[in-house]
Amino acid sequence: MEAIIMGSGTSHGIPVVGCSCRVCRSDDSRDKRSRASLFIRDKEVNILIDTSTEFRIQAIREGITCLDAILYTHSHADHLHGLDDIRPLTKDRPMPVYAGESTQRDIEKRFDYIFSTSPGQKGGGRPKIELHPLPADGITIKGIRIVPVPVFHGELLIYGFRIGELAYITDCSRIPEESYPLLKGLRKLIIGALRKRPHPTHFSIDEAVAEAEKIGAEQTWLTHLCHDHSHMELLEMLPKKIEPAWDGLSISF
C-alpha cells in the first residue's frame, strides 16, 4: 500500500501570495508546498483524504484517473474547496464522500448547487457525490479498513485517520487521551506541525515531535508546514526518524 503526500503546506500554500521571503523564493522543489491532502493507493483502490484547494493540479501530477472514496478531516477551505474538481471522476457514478456531521453540513451549504434539483444546471456542471457519515468504528473500502481518530483543531473536533500501520493527523493542536489507543502500534505517522512558534490551533514543530515520540511510530513526517523554515533547515533541526514531508512524497506501508 502507498500513501502519497498530495500537499504538505499550510492554508495559504508556499510560496505565499505577495511574499518574497527566502523560503518562498527557494529553488528547492520540496519548499513548494501546496495545500495539505493525502492519497492512498493499493492495487485497484484509490482513496483521497481531503480535496485541497490545489486538488486539480495535484491529481494531474499524480496521474489520478479514478477515486473510490473521499474522506474529510474537516471543512476548512484549504481541505475542502477543491471538491468541484472531482467532476471528471464522477461522470460514471457518484463519489462516496465520508465526513463528520459538521463537515457534511458545510459541504451542503458551500456547494449547494451539487444538491440542487433545479433543472437550470445540466451536463457536467457539478460533481455527483453521495454523502455518508463517518462511523466511529471505521469504514472498509474495497478491503482497506480506515478508522477515524478524533483530535482537536483548537476547540474544533476534527478527524485524523488510521489505515493499517499508518496514521494521518493534520491541523491538530490536541489529541484527547481516548484517541491514543487508536494509534497504538503505528509504524508510520504523518502529523501536522505548522512552525516553531506556538499557534493556538496547530501543533508547533516541538509539540508535534513530542506527540510523535509519545505515539512511538517508527518513522514520522511533518506536514501542513508554513514558510518559516526550508526543507533543509527542518531536516537539520529534527531528531532521527522524524523529517519534513514534501509534495509528492510516497510512503509505503
UniProtKB/TrEMBL annotation:
InterPro entries: Metallo-B-lactamas, RibonucZ/Hydroxyglut_hydro. Residues 34-202 form the Metallo-beta-lactamase domain. One of its GO terms (molecular function) is hydrolase activity. The keyword Hydrolase applies. It comes from the Bacteria. Keywords: Hydrolase. This is MBL fold metallo-hydrolase. It holds the Pfam family Lactamase_B_2.
